[in-house]
Design goal:
- This protein is of the alpha+beta class.
- It contains 2 helices and 2 strands, in the order βαβα.
- It has a two-stranded antiparallel sheet with strand order 1-2.
- It starts with 14 loop residues before the first strand and ends with a helix.
- The mean pLDDT is about 90.
């Protein structure tokens, strides 16, 4: 398991997220959704109003390791 530093904005637990592919199975689960950057990785916390929230993604990565490394190196 990859170790992640806490969110620098809220101090919350950080998570990685693999953006799903826009395949048939995903379309059945979420018929109105179309994922941007499918197959890529993001990292952030789950606090709705936090700038570090995984929903406020500003960077995407090819691998989970790259996402974690960038998150853990931030100032």
């Amino acid at each position: 398991m990859i170790e992640l530093k806490k969110c620098p904005f809220c101090g919350g637990k950080a998570y990685t997220f693999h953006i799903p592919d826009n395949n048939e199975e995903e379309q059945k689960l979420h018929p109105k959704w179309r994922w941007n950057n499918a197959g890529m990785w993001v990292v952030g916390c789950h606090e709705d109003m936090c700038m570090g929230s995984i929903n406020n993604v500003t960077m995407i990565f090819v691998t989970e390791e790259q996402a974690a490394e960038a998150w853990n190196k931030r100032a």
